[in-house]
Design goal:
The protein is built from 13 helices and 13 strands. With 488 residues, it is of the alpha/beta class. It folds into two domains: 2-377, 3-Layer(aba) Sandwich (Alkaline Phosphatase, subunit A); 386-482, 2-Layer Sandwich (Arylsulfatase, C-terminal domain). The strands form two sheets. A nine-stranded mixed β-sheet has the order 1-9-3-8-7-2-6-4-5, with helices on both faces. Strands 10-11-12-13 form a four-stranded antiparallel β-sheet, with helices on one face. A hairpin with a 3-residue loop joins strand 11 and strand 12 (399-404). Helix 8 (191-205) runs parallel beside helix 9 and helix 12 (445-462) packs across helix 13. The chain is globular, with a radius of gyration of 22 Å.
């Protein structure tokens, strides 16, 4: 069933069918999992049988986009229900302010036991009560606990494994794992397996009380970890490298310029192998939920923080406004409550929090920039921002508009030939140019005017400093004022 939104009758029927007791909540989060690397998305090379099964058992959102193509801003945006510039987190190292309303706080107030295991980019020590969580084992605490608890078996002679990860210090072919080397552990000794054991223990201990559990995997983030058993899973030659367009040369980060075709194929194969490892772990977590008799009373959400370019436009990262970096998987399952269907209308990360809270019959967050995915009018456009480079994006079904001040010397490692080129706009006709190769802004002035106005309106209606916008600025001058990062 393909539709852009539930009917009013379906929404009311779902509400009437809600149980009298609180359902459980399980949020499964991946890092850098692009929406196109999913079997359910039509990718026959994607090794995702467990995620495909989850998609078939609930609702899959085909055109779901992040509000920022970088980890910390994206995560804290959908955790608070606010645009990144409103949440106060637009750059990778920024911690979320402790007083911000969050999904976890909202659930804790309603009587849920709240817990998080895995990578969250809170950028501060994990102490009980942080952001509404009773129990926390996030990245800074997870790795030492794993290394203390696990005594890994030695790697047999003759098996090459990846070195320590030193992004930007080593050549890109090494830190992007072009040789498709496994992590120097067997599956049973991997960090994600330890993460799963902690999450499963939590499920067992809290099966008789309503829980809200976040489980956040690091895969498939570079260097695309996977265990020794998976080292021969994909042959790099199976993968075609996306072509580079005629206008791409100047915007390809310098760090990727030395990659050969074989290096690129190896990187893609490593990523797909890591996605397969992620899928297996998601399957194990869902199996634990089922074995504990919790499946029917648990709302499950699977999502990634943002997408990822695998050679698209010469890039192997996110940090940009092309669709591979913005579109992500979003799967919702609640047996008997959420229909088996596919939603084709465009949706945003900020739509996820109000949807979750409404499904659980909880009060909305005090600031809500999104709308309920189940029943709301489909979005006519989506908005995303990457303020590290002072740029923002508006995408409709037909057009992609990119605005950049071109004034900020970015600090993310992806420097180009001309780090500060000055203001520029790009417009792509997605119907005739789905790969986003040809900038047609000069030929479609009215479209640029319309989409830049939509972008400015979104900033003005969500930015905490909108009242301070200087007077008598042109539209593009006003956009330059809004795209400046203001993180504290």
């Amino acid at each position: 069933m393909s539709t852009a939104g539930l009917t009013r009758r379906q929404v009311l029927a779902a509400a009437a069918a809600r149980p009298s007791t609180r359902p459980n909540f399980l949020f499964i989060l991946a890092d850098d999992h692009a929406g196109y690397v999913l079997g359910a998305d039509g990718n026959r090379q994607a090794p995702t049988p467990n995620l495909d099964r989850l998609a078939s058992e609930g609702t899959r959102f085909v055109a779901h986009f992040c509000n920022s193509p970088v980890c910390t801003p994206s995560r804290q945006s959908f955790f608070t229900g606010q645009m990144p510039h409103s949440a106060g987190v637009t750059r990778l190292p920024t911690p979320l302010a402790e007083g911000k309303p969050t999904l976890a706080r909202q659930m804790k107030r309603a009587g849920y036991q709240t817990a998080v295991f895995g990578k969250m980019h809170f950028n501060r020590p994990a102490v009980p009560g942080l952001h509404g969580f009773d129990t926390l084992l996030t990245e800074a605490e997870l790795t030492p606990a794993w290394k203390k608890a696990v005594n890994p078996r030695p790697v047999p002679p003759g098996i090459r494994t990846k070195p320590e990860w030193h992004p930007f210090r080593d050549p890109a072919r090494i830190w992007l794992n072009a040789d498709k080397l496994p992590y120097p552990n067997f599956d049973a000794d991997m960090r994600s397996r330890y993460l799963l054991s902690q999450a499963t223990s939590y499920l067992e201990a809290h099966r008789s009380q309503p829980f809200a559990l976040w489980v956040s995997f690091q895969e498939p983030h570079s260097p695309y970890d996977f265990p020794i058993e998976d080292r021969d899973r994909f042959a790099p030659a199976r993968f075609a490298v996306p072509r580079v367009g005629p206008e791409d040369a100047g915007q390809i980060p310098l760090i990727f310029r030395e990659l050969s075709e074989a290096h690129k194929q190896g990187i893609i194969a490593s990523y797909y192998t890591s996605v397969g490892y992620l899928d297996r772990n998601v399957g194990s977590l869902l199996q634990s939920l089922r074995h504990l008799g919790l499946e029917r009373d648990t709302l499950v959400v699977y999502m990634a923080d943002h997408g990822y370019c695998l050679g698209h436009h010469g890039r192997f990262e996110k940090h940009c406004g092309y669709d591979p970096a913005l579109r992500v998987p979003l799967l919702l399952r609640w047996p008997g409550r959420i229909p088996h269907r596919t939603v084709t209308g465009m949706t945003e990360h900020i739509d996820v929090p109000p949807t979750i809270l409404d499904l659980l019959s909880l009060d909305p967050l005090p600031v809500t920039h999104g709308q309920n995915l189940l029943g709301a009018t489909p979005r006519q456009f989506i908005f995303s921002e990457y303020l590290e480079n002072e740029e923002a994006y508006v995408r409709t079904d037909r057009w992609k508009f990119i605005f950049c001040s071109g004034r900020r010397r970015r600090d993310d490692g992806y420097v180009t030939d001309n780090p500060t080129p000055g203001r520029y706009v790009r417009l792509f006709d997605l119907h005739n140019d789905p790969g986003e190769f040809s900038n047609v802004a000069a030929r479609h002035g009215p479209v640029v005017d319309s989409l830049s106005t939509k972008m400015l309106d979104r900033f003005r209606t969500t930015h905490p400093e909108a009242a301070r916008e200087p007077q008598r600025l042109s539209r593009f001058e006003a956009l330059e004022w809004y795209v400046r990062p203001r993180d504290v």
